[in-house]
Specification:
125 residues, 83% helix, mainly alpha
Length: 125
């Protein structure tokens, strides 16, 4: 009889342990899904901010190059007007300034600095 009672106790304890393990497993699964959702939201926000920032930086770089080009063109024009004798030295600079290509300049910079070789991808979980 004592053996039967001990077996019943062990059986009940085993069932309780199984229920506890299932609850812990379910809780861990829920925590994992919350973590994955938070990660996905953070990744999405980061990607959106990265794209916005990159576009803004590109716009600022275009403005910077255009401003430098305009200032140098103004300088060469002033040199043409004021220094008639040395126009031959300013002429090559003026010609090079006219050939500035903003898109090609950015492309060359990206290629030289190894930017844009690997695009970020979504991580599959």
């Amino acid at each position: 009889m004592k053996t039967q009672q001990l077996e019943i106790k062990l059986s009940n304890k085993t069932e309780e342990d199984i229920k506890k393990a299932r609850r812990k497993s379910t809780q861990a699964g829920d925590d994992l899904m919350r973590g994955v959702d938070l990660y996905s939201q953070a990744q999405s926000k980061w990607f959106e901010e990265m794209v916005t920032t990159t576009l803004e930086l590109e716009r600022l770089e275009v403005e910077r190059v255009e401003m430098i080009q305009q200032h140098l063109c103004q300088y060469t024009q002033l040199r043409h007007k004021t220094d008639v004798f040395n126009q031959s030295t300013v002429e090559p600079v003026d010609q090079l300034l006219q050939k500035v290509n903003l898109a090609k300049d950015r492309e060359l910079w990206v290629r030289e600095h190894k930017m844009g070789n690997i695009c970020p991808v979504d991580m599959e979980i």
